[in-house]
Design brief:
With 351 residues, this protein is an alpha/beta fold. The protein is built from twelve helices and eleven strands.
Length: 351
């Protein structure tokens, strides 16, 4: 009897270390912690970017633009956040082909464990130092901030920062997109630019997402009345990109682990909440990336297949209830590439 109990106790004690060793490989991750070295490394990067951005923006008029100005051209930083190959790289290359290279920059953050291939061409060597990312975790916030910081450090003329996924496609030519973002009425008055980010304060999902980390965890920094949700993909002005990199207070809340992981999408909460609290009037409250949530599954929107790809679909995806057309659309399956390339010149980048 004693030997039997001793054997069971010994097996239990022996199995515990083995369980801790194997559990991460057997069970799905519930929370992806951000290590202290990674946090400090990011903080140093963000501080350098903020210092650089402040120096390049020392002229208060630098956030304004006049038609016919002799100032150097502002640029759009296209920031691809991915954990798979950029299977639409040929389409994006066609999109950039007829545009001046001094009007845009490209940056790619890819999960190091995903072994994403460099697609070459204009994307060659545009990968930034990246770290692990996982859905429903604050690692996606860190990755987006890393892209913003790198883009600010890389080129002082980057003014708009567009976050894009590997499943996004352009819906207009680059020229149309540039004019839409930097358009100026025929007036001598300066224009103050806005960020294009979805910010929603109502809906049935708000309560569950706010309390995903537990009761009163977000207080006092983020009261429920200030909590917002929105799309993960945005176009931020340099002013707002800097604001995101400076933030420490809200980040301390949104980096906390979730108890209810089914309602935890930090990247869809952090940016809308932060910008709504800091400068709501400076944001559009709508996104320029079209997403079809009809028939969504497991938190993922509808994915277009080759059978759905056609010129009428592109025309439909452009249409918006706001003052701007949609500029991007997602999600498209990789096997849509051939059809999209066939209509690239005649439909997608023909305005």
């Amino acid at each position: 009897m004693f030997q039997s109990q001793f054997a069971r106790t010994f097996c239990l004690i022996f199995s515990l270390p083995l369980l801790f060793l194997l559990a991460p490989h057997i069970l799905p991750p519930r929370h992806v912690p951000i290590s202290l070295p990674d946090e400090l490394d990011d903080l140093a990067l963000f501080n350098r970017a903020v210092a650089t951005g402040l120096r390049s923006s020392s002229n208060p008029k630098s956030t304004f633009f006049r038609l016919g100005s002799t100032n150097p051209k502002f640029k759009i930083a296209f920031m691809f956040l991915t954990n798979t190959d950029l299977f639409f790289a040929p389409l994006w290359e066609r999109f950039f082909n007829n545009s001046s290279k001094d009007l845009y920059n490209i940056y790619i953050h890819s999960d190091p464990s995903s072994n994403v291939k460099d697609p070459g061409g204009i994307f060659e060597d545009r990968f930034i130092p990246s770290k692990h990312t996982e859905r429903s975790s604050p690692t996606l916030i860190s990755a987006a901030r890393r892209l913003l910081a790198t883009a600010i450090l890389d080129d002082s003329m980057n003014f708009y920062f567009a976050l894009i996924s590997q499943s996004c496609i352009p819906l207009h030519s680059f020229g149309y997109m540039y004019r839409s973002l930097f358009h100026t009425p025929f007036s001598w008055r300066p224009i103050k630019f806005r960020s294009f980010i979805e910010i929603q304060s109502n809906g049935s999902i708000l309560h569950d997402r706010y309390y995903a980390r537990g009761k009163n965890v977000m207080m006092p920094e983020v009261p429920f009345s200030e909590f917002r949700v929105g799309s993960q993909f945005f176009i931020l002005t340099k002013k707002h990109a800097m604001l995101v990199l400076k933030d420490r207070k809200l980040w301390r809340k949104f980096r906390l682990p979730c108890i209810n992981v089914e309602s935890c999408y930090p990247e869809e909460h952090y940016f809308p909440t932060l910008l709504s609290m800091a400068d709501s009037e400076g944001c559009s409250h709508f996104t320029l990336t079209r997403v079809n949530w009809t028939g969504s599954f497991n938190g993922h929107p509808h994915t277009y297949s080759p059978s759905e790809v056609s010129p009428p679909l592109i025309y439909e995806l452009r249409q918006s209830n706001f003052t701007y057309d949609y500029l991007f659309a997602r999600k498209f399956s990789p096997d849509c590439l051939t059809l999209l390339m066939d209509m690239a010149d005649s439909v997608i980048i023909k305005d």
